Structures are given as structure tokens and as C-alpha cells.
Amino acid sequence: MVTKENSVSRRDFLKLASIGGAGVLVGSTGLGTSLYALNHFGRDNQHSKNKVNFYGKHQSGIVTDVQKHVYFVVLELSTDDVQQVKKMFQDWTTQSVKLMNGDVLAEISKNTLLPSVDTGEAVGLDASRLTLTYGISAEFFKKLGIEHLKPKDFVDLPHFPKDQLNPKYTGGHIFIQACSDDPQVNFHAVRNLVRASRDIVSMKWSQTGFNSYDETKKTPDTPRNLFSFKDGTGNPKFKDTETLDRFVFIDQDWAKNGSYLVVRRIQMHIETWDRTSLEDQERTFGRHRDSGAPIGMKKEYDEIDIKSKNDKGELNIPEDSHVHLAKKANTTIMRRSFSYSDGINEATGTFDAGLLFVSFQKSPEQFIKLQSMMGRVDRLNEYITHRGSGVFLAFPGIKEGGYIGEALFNRL
Ligand code: HEM
């Protein structure tokens, strides 16, 4: 495993490289080899800023404060050799620790005749609160012939009314979710992870996204989505471990402390939305746009009462509004979504923009319940189209000295 001695922060890398120029460094490009020079100069990762701990009961990137950027990628396996796949996750573990610490992936080599082990575009950048989250699809179990280890709960999503899924944004065996405050840090992480395993994985689909908020505030505001509404208010609180244990984390068998991830690439029809009155927009969600408060209330976190009525005796939060329907489904999920903007649709001259909806839940059933409730009648449907989809099992957290997916591979 990675130790302090063989790590060097990306911030210190260039300083060290210049010393290396004086002929001190050992010329090797292998990952994880011993580092004479780093030990010699006492450099380690402790000065890297904005680090999130890789190890823990749960993987990072689930109940970690949401960062500003995501790079979400879905991979396909080209091998059915379980041992090779296990080795890949072990290698990714070593790399993930370094990436999340803001360290370079390997020591500086003086051998310019070889490609560098770390591709280098994150040199000089700190850890940027990078989190890396990993998981597998139901197809993964099939591909490797280990379906007996697939938890019973793990079902694929059914076709929902109004789904217009594009095969371009579906399928795959493994997801990696890289979130940080710097898009280049995310890209660097995904690029290097995929590069290390090119012999057995290929990229099926990916999506980048962003969230904006004033990070200088002690408690940053809830980010707004591209329909300008605060998105994430109704989530369980991270401190509310009882709710998280009840609704977000798996409590059974090898997958204990993992979570099911649902991803939906949802196009938002910005032009139609922009022609809609503010009143209609607010009635679509059931919340006020600027304050984020439930309609009829003043503050964002005021309790929602879907039965409350206005002076005219009408429901404040219309029955077909997004929030009313979500409440009616009578379940809870942890949403951790990002907006995306992918240029324009050339055929229509409209924005190709929307939400990379990501939610974590104890069972895919919770999402199915919500989406079935909303799919037919949600007012929001007039303004959105679901284009991509996936459901994955995000592995349990990793103990120091352990590796990603260990709980599963130990059962083989
Ligand atoms: C582009 C698509 C979507 C947009 C723009 C959107 C936006 C919003 C907004 C603005 C809120 C109110 C604030 C908040 O509590 O976060 C909300 C709440 C919520 N949404 Fe969505 N949403 C979308 C898709 C979905 C989907 C696909 C699901 C699940 C199937 C979902 C589930 C929920 C839930 C559970 C709540 C919380 C309700 C509560 O208990 O207060 N949303 N959404």
C-alpha cells in the first residue's frame, strides 16, 4: 500500500524535479517503487491542501460535501478473468490514494525516452477535494460469471413512461465518479486510472458536470440547477446517521456499507422553461425559486406540508408538482447531481444542457418508486427528457491496507 515515504505532493513536484536535474533522483518509471530521493529530501504529502480521506466505512463521494465538478465515466470490461479485475481494483486503490492526496502518481524519472507514469496535467494543483467512487453494474456479475454474489436487491431499472434513452448513454460494467473543485483534477484522475487498465477496460460513456456556489461562505448555499432552483434541499443531512443507515447505505452481506447509485442523464429543455412564467415554474417544483422555500412558506428549510392550502383554498404545493409527488412516494434518497452543458443541438439550435442526476440509496427500489410516481404526471416532464441511465452498486468503504471491492473479491 501507499506510504507517506513514497508520495510527493504535486505542489512540490516541480521543486523536486529541479533538484532531480542535479542528478539525485533514481531513474525508474514503475508505480510504487521505492523513492530514494523523496526520502532523502523528506518530502511527503502532508502539505497537500484540500484532501479528502480515501479510507473509511463508506466510500468518499457519497456523503462528502458536494464539490464543484464531476467527471463520471462508465467502463466496459473486455476480460472475464476475475483475478485480472481484482488486480485492477488493487492498482486503482494505490493510485486513488495518491490522487486524492494530491500527490503525483510516480517519482520523477530522468528517462525521457519513456512516457511518464503520471501524465502531468495536475502538477502544481492541490488535491481540490477530489473524491473517487467506484462501483459495478448487474452486468458485471454476469460478465465475470459470479452472479451468485449479486445481491437480491440488485435489479436493473424498468422502462419508465417518457424515457427516451439513447444507447450511447447506457450499459457498462463499472463506474468511476471523480468529483473535485477543479475539472482538470478530475480529468487527470480518470485519464490516469483508465490508462493504467486499458488492456481490460474501455470507456462506454461519460459525462462531466458542474455545481456553483460561493465556497467562501462557512455554510455554502444549496447550488442551483439550470432551471435556477436550489437543488438538494430535501436531502437527508450527513449528520443524520439514522436516516442514512435507513435509506442510503446497504446493511446486508458483503455489500454492507455500500450504496446503490442511480445515474440519469436528463436533458432540460431550457428554451421551453424560459418561456414559462415564474409562477408556473414555482408550481412545477412546489417551491419558490429565489428562497427555495416550499410554496406558502418563507425559508428554504421550512417543513413541507403537502396538504397546506392558500387563501383561495387551493393546495400550495400542487398535486402534480415535483416535490408533492416526491413526498407522496414516501421514501428518501441522497441526491448528488451536477448540471451539464454540452454545447448545442445542431438540428434544433437549442442548448444540449441538463442534469447529471446522481442518487445514492439502500435499494434501487427507492428510485423506482419515486420515478414511477413522477414519470407519468410530474409537471416537470414537460421540460425534461431522460436520455441516459445506469444503476450500480457502489462498493463498501475501504479499510487502510485494503482495496476497492475487497469485500466482494474475498467471497470468491
Ligand atoms: C432534471 C431533472 C430534475 C430536476 C431539475 C429536479 C429538481 C428538483 C428540485 C428543484 C427539487 C426541490 C429542492 C430539493 O429538495 O432539492 C427537487 C426535489 C426532489 N427531487 Fe428532483 N429533480 C429532477 C429529477 C429528479 C428525479 C429523476 C428524481 C427521482 C426519481 C428526483 C427526486 C427528488 C426528490 C426525492 C426530491 C426531494 C423532495 C423532498 O422530500 O423534499 N428528482 N428536485
Q: Can you characterise this structure?
A:
With 412 residues, the chain is α+β, with helices and mostly antiparallel strands. The chain has one domain. It has helices at residues 10-20, 36-41, 82-101, 138-143, 183-196, 241-247, 270-274, 278-285, 322-328, 364-377, 406-409; strands at residues 69-77, 131-137, 174-180, 201-210, 259-268, 334-335, 338-345, 350-361, 384-394. Strands 1, 2, 3, 4, 5, 6, 7, 8 and 9 form a 9-stranded antiparallel sheet that branches. A hairpin with a 4-residue loop joins β7 and β8. The longest helix is centred in the first third of the chain and has 20 residues, at 82-101. It starts with 9 loop residues before the first helix and ends with a helix. Residues 225, 227, 229-234, 264, 266, 268, 285, 287, 304, 322-323, 326-327, 333, 354-355, 357, 367, 370-371, 374, 384 line the site of protoporphyrin IX containing FE. Protoporphyrin IX containing FE binds at residues 225, 227, 229-234, 264, 266, 268, 285, 287, 304, 322-323, 326-327, 333, 354-355, 357, 367, 370-371, 374, 384.
Count every helix, treating DSSP H or I runs of 4 or more residues as helices: 11
Number of domains: 1
Unreliably modeled segments? 1-5, 21-45
Shape: globular
Biggest sheet details: 9 strands, antiparallel
Question: What's the mean pLDDT score?
Answer: 91
Bound small-molecule species: protoporphyrin IX containing FE
Provide the helix percentage: 10-25%
Protein name: Deferrochelatase
Enzyme class: oxidoreductase
InterPro entries: Dimeric_a/b-barrel, Dyp_perox_C, Dyp_perox_N, Dyp_peroxidase, EfeB/EfeN, TAT_signal, TAT_signal_bac_arc
EC number: 1.11.1.-
